[in-house]
Amino acid sequence: MPRIDIPLDASLNSIVRPPCAKCDGQMMFTGIVSGPEGVDIRTFECVSCDHLEKVAIKTDAMGWITFSG
Questions:
Q1: Where are the domains of the chain?
Q2: Burial class (CB in 10 A: 0-12, 13-18, 19+), 27
Q3: Is this model's pTM higher than 0.90 or not?
C-alpha cells in the first residue's frame, strides 16, 4: 500500500481548553461531533468537578484536507 505523507499544521493540533464555568478548574477535551455545516461541537469535562460543557466551534468544513495530484 502506498504511503501518503500529509504535513501537520501545528495550529490544527491544539485545542483551546476553556476553564470550567462551575469551579474554574481545568477542562479536558473528551469528544467532537460534526454540527451543521461549518461547525464542530466539542465536549469538555472538568477534571475537578466532572462538569460537562459543549462548545460550538466554527470550522472550515473540511477545507484543511488537501490532496495534490
A1: 16-58
A2: buried
A3: no
Instruction: Report DSSP state, residue 1.
Output: -
Query: Rounded to an integer, what distance in angstroms lies between the CA atom of residue 12 and that of residue 60?
Result: 11
Task: Quote the cell numbers at residue 52.
Answer: 460537562
Mind giving me the DSSP string for 4-67?
A: ---PPPHHHH--PPPBPTTT--BEEEEEEEE-STTEEEEEEEETTT--EEEEEEE--TTTT---
Q: What is the mean pLDDT of each run of 10 residues along the chain (69 residues)?
A: 53 70 92 85 92 85 50
Fold observed for domain 16-58: N-terminal domain of TfIIb (2.20.25)
